[in-house]
Write a structure and sequence with these properties.
This protein has 300 residues and is an alpha/beta fold. Helix content is 30%, strand content 24%. About 2% of the residues have low confidence. The structure holds iron/sulfur cluster.
Length: 300
């Protein structure tokens, strides 16, 4: 069920100066048992009018990105802000204002109890990962596992959708990849620590060795790619010119395409190389077929 989540202790709150500039407190909204939570900085003017967080152009963009991943923002996620009242002129909230509203945010996290929290924008990133000193542009998409409100959760910083919309298409690909990662982890129900990470050392290998490594039940892989944009139709494309597969820690096989020959795969990509090209690697298994959008060149 999608509904606002109202904290009785904060009804009519006047703990910080933002109480004077708001029309209403904008409570967090969505599924109260969501595995995935989005946290922004503060409500904008539209949110202040409607009483719901992330309903303006930013929210619509985020909802569209999630729809493409077959994930519904309203019914499957929960969304809120570090500060719950609209600051005048959309200014940054002060540290004192953020501190005053912190118990409300923590209550929301404890109540909804999400596995994955996406910090949208620098203010949310600083609020949720105060010990990190790098700018958000350096750490966006990184997966942090931190104890927040009583238990370990995944925190993924991402650019705020408003910043992405202001700087499209430069930031769009990164945003799609970061949101896709958050959805994937939330759906898996596992913290990243529980998933397998294989240290990768590139050792030039033969095609036969590469195909053998691809038969393992679990393997990690890396793709060597070149990318570009078709000027005529603005379509992003990728070419896979090398594949590395690692089925044992520290023992990866890397197969490079002969530069004189056709790439291993080429075609358009939309959500990020990892998501779009995973089928290319899986197609190395006998009888798997190539499921990726594009053309799989015959391996020499
Ligand atoms: S921003 Fe938070 S602390 Fe400040 S008045 Fe609104 S609800 Fe209260």
């Amino acid at each position: 069920m999608s509904a606002p989540l109202i904290f009785k202790d904060y009804l009519g709150c006047r703990r910080c100066p933002l109480a004077s500039s708001r029309q209403r407190i904008v409570w967090g909204y969505g599924n109260h048992h969501a595995r995935l939570m989005f946290v922004g900085q503060s409500p904008g003017a539209e949110e202040d009018s409607s009483g719901r967080p992330l309903v303006g152009a930013s929210g619509q963009f985020l909802a569209a990105v999630l729809r493409a991943l077959k994930f519904d923002l309203d019914s499957e996620a929960f969304r809120t802000n570090v500060n719950h009242c609209h600051p005048p002129g959309n200014r940054q909230c002060t540290p004192a204002e953020m501190k005053a509203c912190r118990p409300l945010l923590e209550w929301e996290i404890e109540t909804v109890d999400p596995d994955v929290i996406v910090a949208l924008g620098a203010a949310a990133y600083k609020a949720l990962l105060p010990e990190e000193k790098s700018p958000i542009t350096a750490v966006r998409g990184h997966v942090f596992v931190r104890t927040v409100c009583g238990r370990e959760r995944v925190i993924i910083p991402a650019l705020h959708p408003a910043a992405v919309l202001r700087n499209r298409p430069a930031h769009e690909r990164a945003f799609l990849a970061d949101i896709g990662k958050a959805v994937k982890i939330a759906r898996s129900g596992k913290l990243v620590e529980e998933t397998m990470a294989l240290p990768f050392r590139r050792t030039p290998g033969t095609l036969k060795e590469l195909l053998q490594a691809a038969q393992a039940d679990i393997f990690g892989f890396d793709l060597e790619t070149t990318t570009g944009i078709d000027e005529g139709n603005d379509l992003r494309w990728a070419r896979v010119i090398g594949v590395g597969i690692c089925a044992e820690p520290g023992n990866g096989i890397y197969y490079a395409c002969d530069p004189e020959q056709a790439p291993i795969w080429q075609g358009p990509y939309l959500f990020g190389l990892h998501e779009d090209l995973t089928p290319v690697v899986l197609s190395l298994r006998p009888g798997a077929g190539a499921g990726a959008r594009g053309e799989t060149a015959s391996l020499p």
